[in-house]
Transglutaminase-like domain-containing protein
Amino acid sequence: MIKNSFSLIELLIYYIVIFFILREWLVPIMDLTKTGYMELILLFIALSLVISLFRIHFIASWLVKVAYILWFIVFIYDGVFVLSAEGIDFLFSDFQTNIEALMRADWPHITDPFRTFLFFILIWMLIYLIHHWIVVRMNIFYFLLLTVFFVGALDTFTEYDGSLAIVRIMLLGLIMTVSLLIKRLINNANIKMDLMKYLKLVVPVILLVVAVSSIAFFLPKSPPQWPDPVPFIKSAAGKGGSEVDEGGIKKVGYGDNDSRLGGSFVADDTVVFLAEASTKQYWRVETKDVYTSKGWEDAGYSQGELRAIAPGETIDYSLPRGPEEDTKTATIQVMDPYDFVIQPYGLKNVTSAMMSVHPNLEFMMSLDTEKIMSYVDRAPTALTGYTVEYSKPVFQYSALKDPTEEIDPMIGERYLQLPEALPDRVKDLATDIVEGRETPYDKARAIEMYFKQNGFRYDTDNIAIPSEEQDYVDQFLFETKIGYCDNFSTSMVVLLRSVGIPARWVKGFAGGDLVDNNGSMSTYQITNNDAHSWVEAYIPSVGWVNFEPTIGFNSSRSIDYDLETDAYQEDALTIEEETEPDEVVEEEPETQQTTPQENRLSKNISDFFEQNKFIFMLLLAAGIVCVFVLYKIRRKWLPKVYAALYRRKDFNESTFEAAFLQLLKLLELKGFKRKDGQTLQTFAKEMDAYFETGHMSRLTKFYEQSIYSKNASKADMSQMKESWEYLINQITS
């Protein structure tokens, strides 16, 4: 039997502290639920603590508490005396109603008086539990932890501000925890101690806790170092999507609401779909046309009209297509249940094997955004897979350079929109960028390349959000110069429109990662991390042409240079070279000559390892796991390391052979391995067909000449370096 060693004064002090801590529980509940009569509920808590303090017999305790609860319910909900006929009838009828609801498991019809009754019972049981923790266990750590978690959760996920409440809880809780610890130690040692000696032990600790807490409270504090995790938690739970309030953090992925751009996001490698296609490419979903100075919206130009498309029917939309003989097929396997269709450029039609299950399957295209959705019986339905036919357009360079038609006024009216509040310096910058350029295509290319040549940086962390007075594009162009695809693509659209070139904002997915290669068809894995945005500009005589201003990404447009020009070199991706800090070589200290010192040092080291061998074993195990993981994902990081290291070396005829062999090694790491017996020229043609360039053949020809020909012709090493860097960027992008 546990002997109660607490005096009445001690318990009184503890219960007063508990009363104020329970009040911190009650305040947010009353505030968030808009419930009144908090004073009467606090009176019940005080009454229960007094009954526990004086250890009143449990029968009398029950009678007093039940009487108070019944009085409260009748007084609040019926306004009559509890022992009156009306009061007793109210209690009886309400009890009968709730018993029937409980028997039917009809939870929505539980009455408010019964919910109040259950709330009082909860308080009753909580006070009993606290009494046990204090008197028997002499430890309230779990109660304190639960209180902090409860108030912290309300502060995080609701509008309740619990900052000061948590400070008060921690201050009272720490004082009480230390006091009970001292009391427990005294009891375990079976020491008799009067009140004054006990206070001499407790008071210094209390003063120390108060002093440290006050210093921590009043000292200046740095702002939060981490982004708000709540939007990410809600997004992960399927409650928040990818859109968040200002100051929050987005979970990367495809979202519908683009009215408020900006802010950081967290990566998400969840697989969205697998695409089996002949080449890597961009996957288009929709376009938007109205820039609001904070983001993008759909103007509803066609009043939300949808156009029905039967499976296999040729799709009539605004983008050009390639010739019929270049038609290709891509198979999409959907992992995330999106109800829209992933569109390759040059899309012709969509079919699905699910027609055997859903004979009423049809597709609907929004005339406003060109977003194509799958419907069954006129209801949006997510498909697990479908096949698209497409013929990617190849733009004639002569047509791009020599526009012969006027822009349709309807296109100009819709795609030249800019907000009235757009700062003039944005328009002035656009004029400066295109100065000296004559054709719309040359102007668009100048704007596209501007971001790659003027100190802009791609990043997803600590990205600014414009204030109410700021313009999203203006902030990016003139203040931060740091952002991701939304910043770059939106800015290019605004700059294009500022110089009279119709442009629209495009959303979809980048090409993803190659995961399998089966002859002429390759399988690409596209994740939420590949969600992307880019630009389509209207070029007279050609139509809508896609542009890619984001640093580190390639444009997927194909151009037939039917004129003699070096312009193809301008289309190569330009990114900032990765730099590494110079190596710091530390001078080795002089060898110690004194043998006793060496022996003592060796012994100290040996003792240190012996004392911490368990930690070193854990570190060794963690290191082995890390090495194994790095080995498994080496195809993702090793090419970038090789490329970064090799860029630091001089590129000339003497180092060309090693650079070419390194390029072959990088291609092999990315899954492009030469077949047995395959010549270098044949392999180079395959790579050029895949990357849609001629760089690999040029490098291979010079390599073979330098190896096998005694009279090898001199080559332009600057062109060789450009070709080598272009392929390296393609591999590592």
About this structure: The radius of gyration is 36 Å.
